[in-house]
Amino acid sequence: MYTGFLKNVWYVGLPSSELAVGKSQARKIMNEPIVFFRNSKGTVSAVRDICPHRGIPLSFGRVVEDTIECPYHGWKFDGSGMCTEIPSLCPGQDLNPNKIKVRSYPVHEAQGLIWIFIGDKDYDMSKAPQIPVMKAFGNDVKPKLTYVVNFPCHVDHAVIGLMDPAHGPYVHKSWFWRSEKTMLEKRKKFAPVNYGFQMVRHQPSKNSKAYKILGGTPTTEITFTLPCIRVEHIEVGPRNFYSYTALTPVDEKNTRVTQLAYWDIPWLTLLKPAINQFSKTFLGQDMDAVTKQQEGLKYDPSLMLIKDADTQAKWYYSLKTEYHDHLEQKRDFNHPVKETELRWRS
């Protein structure tokens, strides 16, 4: 079982709303310092956040003439990572700034998120898991709600904690959610999708109170794809609600969780403050659980995954291991998930 960080995949760098024109933002992803900056035309770039001259983070500088300027000596780097200017050079001095480069990363901005491709420079990105698109909305849609929080744990524990179907009655004890007193047996059909799996569209369980605010007869499908993206799409007649969760590994002990909500249900906007509070409470309960979990993990215990409640976690590890192995062995990806029905009580 591979427990490292996956490469040659797309990760969320940050929400689009966090990066204004002419500004920069520093992020650490997979132990690597990266600075994102947006030029005057709105285009986003990402480069390694260390100046090759004296090692100061470029993010302490400013965006000037569509470049990121080092705050120490004014060296400027464009979106490709090439140095465009060294102010201290005098005419005739034999040094071409353009030969000095920092690593740059492919980025993609869509539906309110800025993505970054972490991997080998010569890798064919068309072969990587594609960024999940909310087909009901256009590329320029903006999220109604955005919430970013740090989980103090390895990305694997964050992923399987969020997809765990059996923890709800115990972790999410709230008036708006089910409790252990209303636990029912669930039967859900699952099917493989590209580099992931999907809980096939169905009507939510009768003890799932949160869905009732949508009115009508909602149906939902939940899709997980590598490296660590969960998208729930709820349909209420012709209307749509998406809950979009993307996890980004910061380092071995921290994971950035980006939670967004999108909808085209007009009257639901009136409940935006309540939905925002619900999202913060819900994600905060998950964060509290994984934070407490770290106390036990300090002792490196042997852990268990059982049928059927933990089968999705098993699939996650299988998908992750297969993706890593197929890259290392330079062979085709062999999907480990098969169509099936799972049963659990929650």
Describe this structure in words.
With about 350 residues, this protein is an alpha+beta fold. The chain has two domains: about 120 residues, Rieske [2Fe-2S] iron-sulphur domain (Rieske Iron-sulfur Protein, 3-layer Sandwich), CATH 2.102.10.10; about 200 residues, Alpha-Beta Complex (Naphthalene 1,2-dioxygenase Alpha Subunit, Chain A, domain 1). The strands form four sheets. Strands 12-18-17-16-15-14-13-19 form an eight-stranded antiparallel sheet, covered by helices on one side. It has a four-stranded antiparallel sheet with strand order 2-3-4-9, with no helix packed on it. It has a four-stranded antiparallel sheet with strand order 5-6-7-8, with no helix packed on it. Strand 13 and strand 14 form a beta hairpin. The chain is globular. About 30% of the residues are buried.
Give a short synopsis of this structure:
Helices cover 16% and strands 33% of the residues.
Which structural class do you get from the secondary structure elements? alpha+beta
Write down the CATH class of the largest domain. Answer: Alpha Beta
CATH T-level topology of the largest domain: Naphthalene 1,2-dioxygenase Alpha Subunit, Chain A, domain 1
Q: What characteristic shape results from the CA principal axes?
A: globular
Order of secondary-structure elements: EEEEEEEEEEEEHHEEEEEEHHE
Supply Rg. Answer: 22 Å
Indicate the low-confidence ranges by residue numbers.
none
Strand arrangement, largest sheet?
12-18-17-16-15-14-13-19
In total, the number of strands is 19
* Helical stretch tally: 4
SS strand fraction: 25-35%
Annotated CATH architecture of the largest domain: Alpha-Beta Complex
What do the pLDDT scores average to?
Answer: 93
Proportion of helical residues = 10-25%
